[in-house]
Specification:
96 residues, alpha+beta, Hypothetical Cytosolic Protein, Chain: A, 3-stranded antiparallel beta sheet, 3 helices, 5 strands, globular
Length: 96
């Protein structure tokens, strides 16, 4: 039997390649009214939208904020309020 291929993704914070299921997806998607774009964490990995992957570690999120890795991957400027929300969501995921 052939071994199953494990999908790999690169973290935008630490730039390491890791298994897709070990990472958290950050997505940019159009709001319901279609007027603006929204950014959120996608812990399930199944939501529609342009995605970037980050390790489930707040240090990687801080590195992604510092080197603007999320902005480059999502191809949009990200305001500070969104980073605060992402940091809170990441802390909630780490405590689970």
């Amino acid at each position: 039997m052939a071994n199953k291929k494990i999908p790999m993704r690169q973290c935008v914070g630490c730039r390491e390649m890791k298994a897709k299921r070990d990472m958290i997806r950050v997505i940019k998607y159009a709001s319901e009214d279609g007027e603006k774009t929204e950014i959120c964490l996608d812990a399930t990995g199944r939501k529609n939208g342009r995605g970037a992957y980050i390790c489930a570690d707040s240090a990687c999120l801080r590195a992604a904020i510092r080197n603007k890795g999320l902005e480059r991957s999502l191809k949009t400027p990200i305001p500070g309020e969104i980073y605060e929300l992402l940091t809170k969501e990441m802390e909630e995921l780490e405590t689970r």
